[in-house]
């Protein structure tokens, strides 16, 4: 039903060696998961679409954008067991995209837990990680939506006052193919480090970009529980929150829905 119009190739180690480019698909994540079932060489495959008719974000939210206005892509991976945890993969994806944004615009992006990137408080990128398979063979599909060319008026008309694009930030046009080249190279470089067990720098960059260490925070859990206190530290193993009574509560990253500073 969905046939790529062309295939691009980038000089990378794994991610982006093959990029299937579509005019439109239902969802690049859905297509990526389907291809992974039949394509033995799918590890590192990237799917890029001008438009998605059933794009989705975290927790089932709908992702919509004007055709060609965003980089809409998914990366198919078959990670080994040691790096399959969603928190590590989310950190890898968000930090890699922040580095790509810095290269493209000269502007730092911050992470809004768990997987959005903000510039000056406005969302420029969203990431959705989905996994399937058994413990012996897990396929991970990383969906990325990066706003490229939308104008401030366009966001206002769509009632999206808290969104921005690289074009707005950069003050000029951002072309899709050069932007994708930067994105896949950053993703590929950081993934190679993840595979090599070089997690210290990634974890430090992730913590810095979340930007809440030492602050009073409110942590909302997936089950509805709420933890409040000072965020003393955070790692892939847990978030250390010091409550008012001095007790330090360790919260597993996988159960954290949102973190926000106390006002």
Observed structural traits:
alpha+beta, five-stranded antiparallel sheet, SH3 type barrels, 6 helices, 28% helix, 263 residues, BirA Bifunctional Protein, domain 2, 13 strands, 33% strand, eight-stranded mixed sheet, 2 domains
**Cα-atom Rg, whole angstroms?**
18 Å
Q: Helical amount among residues, as a percent range?
A: 25-40%
The CATH topology of the largest domain, please? BirA Bifunctional Protein, domain 2
Strand content of the residues, in percent?
A: 25-35%
Mean of residue pLDDT?
92
Task: Tell me about this structure.
It is a single chain. The chain has helices at residues 28-38, 86-105, 152-157, 166-170, 176-195, 200-210, and strands at residues 6-8, 19-25, 46-52, 70-77, 110-112, 116-119, 122-134, 137-147, 216-221, 226-235, 238-242, 248-251, 256-261. With 263 residues, it is of the alpha+beta class. It folds into two domains: 6-208, 2-Layer Sandwich (BirA Bifunctional Protein, domain 2); 212-261, SH3 type barrels, CATH 2.30.30.100. The strands form two sheets. It has an eight-stranded mixed sheet with strand order 1-2-3-4-8-7-6-5, with helices on both faces. Helix 2 (86-105) packs across helix 5 and helix 2 (86-105) packs across helix 6. The longest helix is centred in the middle third of the chain and has 20 residues, at 86-105. The mean pLDDT is 92.
């Amino acid at each position: 039903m969905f046939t790529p119009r062309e295939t691009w190739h980038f000089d990378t180690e794994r991610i982006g060696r093959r990029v299937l480019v579509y005019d439109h698909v239902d969802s690049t994540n859905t297509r990526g998961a389907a291809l992974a079932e039949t394509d033995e060489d799918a590890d590192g495959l990237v799917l890029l679409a001008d438009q998605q008719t059933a794009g989705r974000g975290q927790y089932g939210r709908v992702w919509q954008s004007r055709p060609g206005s965003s980089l809409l892509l998914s990366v198919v991976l078959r990670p080994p067991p040691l790096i399959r945890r969603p928190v590590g993969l989310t950190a890898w994806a968000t930090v890699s995209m922040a580095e790509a944004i810095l290269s493209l615009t000269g502007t730092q992006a911050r992470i809004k837990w768990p997987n959005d990137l903000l510039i000056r408080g406005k969302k420029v990128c969203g990431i959705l990680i989905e996994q399937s398979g058994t413990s012996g063979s897990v396929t991970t599909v990383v969906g990325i939506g990066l706003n490229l060319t939308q104008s401030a008026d366009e966001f206002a008309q769509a009632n999206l006052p808290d969104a921005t694009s690289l074009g707005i930030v950069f003050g000029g046009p951002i072309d899709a193919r050069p932007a994708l080249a930067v994105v896949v190279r950053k993703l590929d470089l950081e993934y190679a480090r993840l595979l090599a067990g070089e997690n210290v720098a990634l974890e430090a960059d992730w913590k810095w970009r979340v930007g809440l260490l030492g602050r009073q925070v409110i942590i909302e859990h997936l089950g509805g529980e709420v933890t409040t206190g000072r965020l003393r530290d955070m790692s892939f193993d847990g978030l250390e929150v010091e409550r008012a009574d001095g007790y330090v509560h360790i919260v597993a990253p996988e159960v954290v829905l949102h973190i926000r500073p106390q006002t």
